Request: fold
Amino acid sequence: MRVPVLAGNWKMYKTAGESAAFAKGFLPLVAGVSGVEIVLAPPFPSIATLSAALKGSGVRVASQNVHFASEGAYTGEVSPAMVKDAGATHCIIGHSERRQYFAEDDASVNRKVRAALAAGLTPILCLGETLSEREGGKAFDVVSRQLRDGVREISAGEAAKILLAYEPVWAIGTGKTATPEQAQEVHGFLRARMKEIWGEAGANVRVLYGGSVKPDNIAALMAKEDIDGALVGGASLSPESFARIVKFQ
Ligand code: PEP
Reply:
C-alpha cells in the first residue's frame, strides 16, 4: 500500500511571515483529510517558522536542497542536520532548477541523497528529461541514468525511506502537463528499474509526478497505477489551490 504524498515546492517565494500566514489559511482547509501525506517545502529561512506553525497538524516540512557535508567551510550552504534541527523531515534533492542553474549533477545529487538519509531526512529525489531529450527519444535513457547514479550505494533497506519525483523539465512552470498516459509510462518504467536495483523493496518506493500539476488535473494523474503523489510548484503557493490538490479524491 503506497500512501499518496502531496508535496508543495515554494521555490524562492514566501518570507517566514508569509509562510505562517499560509499555514493559518491552509490547516482549516485540510482538517479531517486522511490517507495522504502532505509536505511543504519553503525557502530555508522559513523552515523553522513554518514547522512551528504546522506543529501537531501532521503536515511535514521539507527543505528545497541540502549540502552533502555535515558541516565545514562551505559558504552559503546548509547541512542536512541544520534543516532537520529547524524542523524539516524531508528535503528535495536534484530539482531540475538546481541541475540547470547551480550545476548539480548525478554525482553530487547522490552524495546529497546519502547525506540526507544519514541525517534521518526523507529525500525527495527529482529526475526528468528536457524537451530536447524527449524529442530526441532519450527520455527513458536519461531518467534511467539519473535514477541509477542518484541512488548509487543506497541499499534496499534505505530505499524504503526515499521518495522519487518524476518531473519532465518541459512541464515545470510551463503550464504544459505531461498527459496521465505519458507520466504513467515513465513511472512504470522507473518502478521496473527500481525493482532491478532493489528487488521487491523497489516496488514500494513512491514516485511523485511534478510539472504543472493543478487542482483540475490532479485526479486524472493520481488515477494512474504508478503515480503515487505530486510535487507541486506554482499551484502550492495558495492555500486554496493546494488544499484542492490535497483533496483530489
Ligand atoms: C516544481 O517546482 O517542482 C514544479 C513541478 O513546478 P510547477 O508545478 O509550477 O510546474
Observations:
- The pocket of phosphoenolpyruvate is lined by residues 9, 11, 167, 172-173, 210-213, 231-235 (CB under 6 Å).
- The CA atoms of residues 41 and 211 lie 16 Å apart.
- The mean pLDDT is 97.
- The radius of gyration is 17 Å.
